[in-house]
Automatic annotation (TrEMBL):
Name of this protein: histidine kinase
Compartments where found: Cell membrane
Coiled-coil ranges per UniProt: none
UniProt superkingdom: Bacteria
Region forming the signal peptide: none
Domain Histidine kinase: 41-258
Length: 265
């Protein structure tokens, strides 16, 4: 841009200053627009569960509390909405922390194979659905420097989605490969998939392919946006591949230098 600046200046003198100013305004306007859009989204996301809760509480106060079948049902709805609000506020706090200047990673050298196994175990022991887990991890230790809490959150967000969108009896495959100074970690499911035209957007804040369905599943629309920021903070990239009706694979990379020793773990 600076090179352009001086060339244009020689030829047109005064006008070029205007061009630069216009450019700055557009950048600033874009930031302002994004901020306004974000605030509008947040307000909408907060209002939806709150208005739902208000109407259920009103019905309860108006006498539904006396009905032994309706009352527990209405209370459960308000409880679920409260849980979702808490998740939403936690996710928002997480994002705002990442946006702040003093955001730092607390990194350690950890064998990713052991770490990945531990996370998968946690899901395997607690999952309520009938879903089969398959692990295709490296057969030797792979030490990477990373922030364990952040990587846990990245994987929890990705694996929770895989479970959420998996059909009964579906399989989730956990993979890990070495590729050109990177570790590639992926989670594949056999779920509904994502239409090709939407796949680039799933890492955006509040983006959901099917708003009604994902709300019902308790999503905040922020899980993958958080994962993306955290992966990038580690110097990696995140992406998704999907075929509608067949399944989805979400992968991310981490910088990695393979070592000679293979008997570390
Ligand atoms: P949410 O909390 O809604 O799941 P995410 O940011 O985690 O938000 O995901 C954004 C959207 O991407 C989801 O609403 C869903 O439409 C889509 N998505 C993410 N993972 C999957 C998956 N494994 N299968 C199908 N759709 C997915």
């Amino acid at each position: 841009l600076r090179a352009n600046f001086s060339v244009i200046q020689k030829e047109t003198g005064f006008v070029n200053g205007l061009i630069t100013v216009l450019h700055d305004i557009t950048e600033q306007e874009k930031i302002d627009m994004e901020r306004r859009e974000f605030v509008a989204n947040v307000s909408h996301e907060l209002r939806t569960p709150l208005t739902t809760m208000r109407s259920y509480l009103e019905a309860l106060a108006d006498g539904a509390w006396r009905d032994e079948t309706i009352a527990p049902n209405f209370l459960e709805v308000t409880q679920n909405e409260t849980e979702r609000l808490i998740r939403l506020v936690n996710d928002l706090l997480q994002l705002s922390k990442m946006d702040s200047k003093d955001y730092r990673l607390t990194t350690e050298w950890i064998n990713f194979v052991d770490f990945y196994n531990r996370i998968i175990d946690r899901f395997e022991f607690t999952k309520e659905q009938n879903v089969v887990f398959e692990r295709q991890l490296l057969d030797h230790a792979a030490f990477v420097e990373f922030d364990e809490d952040k990587l846990t959150q990245i994987l929890v967000n990705i694996i929770s989605n895989a479970l959420k969108y998996s059909p009964e009896g579906g399989k989730i495959t956990f993979r890990m490969i070495e590729k050109e100074q990177h570790l590639i970690i992926s989670v594949s499911d056999e779920g509904v998939g994502i239409p090709k035209e939407n796949i680039g957007q799933i890492f955006e804040r509040f983006y959901r392919v099917d708003k009604a369905r994902t709300r019902k599943l308790g999503g905040t629309g922020l899980g993958l946006a958080i994962a993306k920021e955290m992966v990038e903070a580690h110097g990696g990239e995140i992406w998704a591949e999907s075929e509608e009706g067949k399944g989805t694979t979400v992968s991310f990379s981490l910088p990695y230098v393979p070592t000679e020793e293979e008997d570390w773990s």
